[in-house]
Specification:
single chain, 898 residues, alpha/beta, Alpha-Beta Plaits, Rossmann fold, 7-stranded mixed beta sheet, 6-stranded parallel beta sheet, 40 helices, 18 strands
């Protein structure tokens, strides 16, 4: 390979959208499609000076010497893909992302944040779409390929990248140009993009805009019954206010939340806050200085929502919140705006009707399902009567208009008159009944097969993919026959009863509006099927959790982690049904056992991703309900709980570990015993009881070998390596860490290999080889950030602080120590800085000695600086450590068996 340029280059990533589904549909002919795709792309890359650096499956990583060449290559590739004669009869849709920067040349390739940025941009695109960074757009300037323009997509936040990125799309003449919103997390304008324009709300928008122009107004609550258009109005209002909030506008759907902990987590996830800062007080520090707008949607069911909103606004004095709820928050400073129905015409004339918001909405949605529909003198009276009959409620009108595909307005009105028999009462109650009756009417128009399918969708929370939907809805063949889930979902979408979006993997994902979901659940209960459907839901997501958790320690670890986090709301729903924390009577023994199994699988993951208050609550509930019999699941939940006590010698932690170990021994479960022994060894390490730690670690390794459990064996060997480091047997420690890395590398477990590098770096620093330690940490720092694992990040920062102290960079060591301590505080596990264990580590790592070289005020100032770092800022500082004491390769590690 030719020598790579070390200056500014353009980085292009591409892959096939929905490749797994395409493989399933094409079968053997997928190979031909893949070959054709590669031929087209490689021709385009070569024609514009591209150098192919990586190809894996259907993905490419290509580097171009100029931005102009990268854009031209992407344009050519998309045009030729569109014109290609695909033998399988199904076109291959490729998404591409381009970013221009100055990555570091390393080992025949490129590394650095510019590479990650380009990959994130590609991951945000859709099949057939080319998305580029503003840096690329500026360099291309007016030298775009012929018949290509740029479409500004606005500012977006990309995963693991601190600052928003302005993204643009190549608009290639002759090719599709309208795509769904790009898939970014925590976009600076992370508002849903409605498929249709807002109608009939001009006066409300003007009034609310004027209200929020006052600096004293920081909380506006839009109230009204479900389906009155609160969410749609809130989104439109936020869109008008984007320019006033330089730190972002964030839409946070809360329909699946039910308490304050989940609400905090939901807000943090939308902001793409790193896992180490997703709960107070760390999260509040993260948003304290933001001049941002938060749209908090569907809060009425959340216990403690008022406290969350009040705390958010109190700690972020520049922030503003727009809330939608069926009831008031009653928070000081709350400004309430009831959302009225859409305006109705007084008469039945066509001109008057066309000026009405309700009629405009009906016309808009009727055209969606029947493009030839037109409001005429012949049907205007019937359309007006329909909208009046529905009280001008937007969701009711949308549901009714969806039926224009098969019914004329006159026929539609006749059926509505028969379906909606509304009793007299106060207006709000009447409107709520009107909406419910409209959903019921749309439901009644479905066939029995579609009705049974729709009812069962009510058990999902946060949406679901087709596999989950099929597992929970296909109860009996006589109900669903040979119907395909995708076809049934499409029919519900046609009837405006469901919403289809695209998941992160490019596959369809279905969700229901909360009002519709509530109706589905009621219908499910009325049919006597709710318990069965919830049982199926819990069983499916338990099995999914077990499968995905087993993949975390393989080469599919990152994808498994992302899928687990995507399904968080469904896991919550499954736990809620299995453990029933709010029920008067306890769940059945079978339900409680399922809940315990789910806690055993999710406990570690949720702890790592800082759902700590939740996991504590669920696991304690599961243990309280459990029979107490010896099971592997009970042992693992006890092990998870043992790590929640601050002091290593805490008797509660010791008791939990010994309970778990006893269960595993009685079950003759060598892998479980090995895990419990490794955790006990870890506790003894932190308590300074190294002989006992070594005893447990060695036994753990032996039993892990007996079990044949490769991930557990790697973990046990790694813990033994930590003991060896503490015993100052440095050569043995590195040997053990490398053995564990080899096992992890054989399985493709990237995270385990990274953990090994960090551990080796700490050993090198302790043994007097700080330069080599820093070099090793520099090599893995970007990968540590990529995994978004606060435990790994915290351990790496501690290793960096140790290393910088040994390098004589006392101020940097203090900043990184401050960042390390702040990270643990942010995840709800603050370090007791004065504890004997922490003081012993500071002494042994040389940080105490480094502190003594600085003025006390300077040391404290550096600690404070680090405490306010973002994770990205902390790692950027760490990677500036000067490697000036590195020893030549092959220098022996000095043993010191003191």
């Amino acid at each position: 390979m030719a020598e790579l340029p070390s200056g500014t280059v353009s980085l292009l990533f591409s892959d096939i959208e929905g490749s797994t589904a395409l493989l399933s549909r094409l079968g053997p002919s997928y190979v031909d499609a893949l070959d054709g795709h590669r031929e087209v792309l490689r021709t385009a890359w070569a024609g514009h000076g591209g150098t192919e650096l990586g190809t894996e499956g259907d993905s490419f990583f290509v580097v171009f010497p100029t931005a102009e060449g990268a854009v031209a290559a992407a344009t050519q590739a998309q045009r030729e893909l569109a014109a290609f004669d695909w033998s399988g009869g199904e076109p291959v849709r490729v998404r591409m992302g381009i970013h221009t920067g100055t990555p570091t040349v390393h080992d025949g390739g490129y590394v650095g944040m510019d590479v990650h940025r380009a990959a994130r941009i590609a991951g945000a695109a859709h099949g057939g779409q080319v998305v580029i960074s503003s840096a690329t757009a500026e360099l291309v300037g007016g030298r775009l390929p012929e018949r290509v323009d740029l479409r500004d997509l606005g500012n977006h936040r990309l995963k693991d990248i601190a600052r928003p990125e302005r993204l643009l799309q190549l608009a290639i003449e002759g090719l599709p140009g309208d795509f769904p919103p790009i898939k970014t997390l925590g976009a600076a304008t992370s508002l849903p993009t409605p498929l249709t324009p807002l109608v009939g709300r001009d006066s409300e928008l003007a009034e609310l805009n004027s209200l929020l122009s006052s600096p004293q107004v920081r909380l506006v609550t839009l109230t009204g019954p479900g389906g009155s258009g609160k969410t749609r109005l809130a989104i439109a209002l936020a869109q008008e206010l984007v320019e006033r909030f330089p730190d972002g506008v964030f839409f946070v759907p809360m329909a699946a939340a039910n308490d304050a902990d989940v609400m905090w987590a939901s807000i943090a996830e939308v902001l793409d806050v790193p896992p180490e800062g997703r709960i107070p007080p760390g999260f509040l520090d993260h948003v304290a200085h933001r001049n941002a707008l938060f749209v908090l949607d569907n809060l009425e069911q959340i216990s403690g929502a008022d406290t969350v909103v009040a705390d958010l606004l109190n700690h972020a004095p520049k922030a503003v919140a727009i809330v939608t709820s069926r009831k008031l928050l009653t928070v000081p400073g709350e400004h309430v705006h009831p959302v009225p129905p859409l305006g109705l015409p007084e008469g039945t004339g066509q001109i008057e009707a066309e000026a009405s918001g309700a009629i405009q909405l009906f016309d808009q949605h009727a055209r969606k399902v029947k493009p030839s529909f037109t409001l005429t003198a012949d049907n205007v009276a019937d359309v007006t009567a329909i909208c009046r009959r529905l009280d001008g409620l937007p969701l009711a009108i949308e549901l009714a208009a969806a039926r224009v595909r098969v019914l004329t307005p006159k026929a539609l009105l006749a059926r509505l008159d028969n379906a909606l028999d509304i009793a007299s009462g106060n207006q709000a109650h009447s409107r709520q009944k009107t909406l419910r009756a409209t959903i019921a009417w749309s439901y009644d128009l479905l066939g029995a097969k579609q009705q049974g399918f729709f009812r069962r969708l009510g058990v999902f929370a946060g949406g679901a993919d087709l596999d989950a939907i099929t597992a929970i809805t296909a109860v009996t063949a006589d109900i669903f026959g040979d119907a395909d889930s995708l076809d049934l979902v499409g029919e519900l979408d046609d009837a405006s009863l469901a919403i289809i979006t695209e998941g992160d993997d490019g596959e369809p994902r279905l969700a229901l509006l909360q009002t519709v979901a509530d109706f589905a659940l009621d219908a499910l209960a009325a049919a006597g099927d709710e318990e069965e459907a919830r049982a199926r839901h819990a069983e499916y997501f338990l099995l999914l959790a077990e499968r995905l958790v087993s993949e975390l320690r393989t080469n599919r670890g990152m994808a498994a982690q992302n899928r687990l986090l995507t399904e968080t709301d469904n896991f919550r729903a499954a736990l809620d049904w299995t453990l029933q924390p709010k029920a008067v009577t306890p769940p059945s023994a079978a339900q409680a056992r399922m809940g315990l199994r789910l806690c055993a699988k999710l406990g570690w993951l949720w702890t790592v991703h800082t759902y700590l208050p939740e996991v504590r609550r669920w696991t304690q509930r599961a243990l309280d309900l459990d029979s107490g019999a010896d099971t592997p699941e009970r042992a693992r939940v006890l092990l998870a709980q043992s790590g929640w006590w601050d002091a290593p010698a805490d008797p509660r932690s010791q008791a939990l570990l010994e309970q778990a170990l006893g269960i595993c021994r009685r079950l003759n479960d060598p892998a479980g015993i090995a895990l419990a022994l490794a955790d006990l060894a870890d506790q003894h390490i932190r308590a300074g009881r190294l002989d006992k730690a070594a005893e447990f670690a060695k036994e753990s390794v032996v039993l892990a070998q007996v079990s044949g459990d490769s991930p557990q064996l790697a973990h046990s060997i790694h813990v033994h390596g930590r003991v060896a480091t503490e015993q100052r047997e440095f050569g043995l420690a590195v040997e053990l860490f490398e053995r564990a890395q080899d096992l992890n590398r054989q399985r493709g477990e990237e995270a385990g290999v990274i953990w090994g590098d960090v551990a080796i770096a700490k050993t090198l620093a302790t043994s007097g080889r700080a330069g080599e330690a820093a070099n090793r940490l520099h090599r893995v720092a970007a990968d540590v950030l990529k995994w978004s694992n606060p435990l790994l990040s915290g351990d790496t920062l501690a290793a960096y602080a140790h290393t910088c102290a040994a390098l004589g960079e006392a101020e940097r060591a203090a900043r990184l120590l401050g960042a390390h301590w702040a990270l643990w505080a942010a995840i709800g596990e603050p370090v007791n800085k004065q504890s004997p264990e922490e003081q012993a580590w500071l002494e042994e790592s040389g940080i105490t000695a480094a502190r003594d070289t600085l003025d006390e005020d300077l040391w404290e100032e550096a600690l404070e600086t680090g405490a306010h770092y973002t994770l990205e800022e902390a790692f950027a500082d760490a990677r500036q450590a000067n490697i000036r004491t590195a020893q030549p390769p092959g220098t022996a590690i000095v043993e010191n068996n003191v």
